Amino acid sequence: MTVIVDYGVGNLFSLCSSLRCLGLETEVSGEAAPLQAAERIILPGVGAFGDARAKLSETGLVPVLLEEAERKPLLGICLGMQLLFDRGFEYGEHPGLGLIPGEVAFLGEDLADKSLKIPHMGWNSLEIVKDDPLFKYFKSGEYVYYVHSFYARNCRESTLGLSRYGNAAVTGVVRRGNVWGTQFHPEKSGDAGLRLLRAFAEL
Question: If you count Cβ atoms within 10 Å of the first and of the last residue's Cβ in the chain, which end, N or C, has fewer?
Answer without folding.
Answer: N
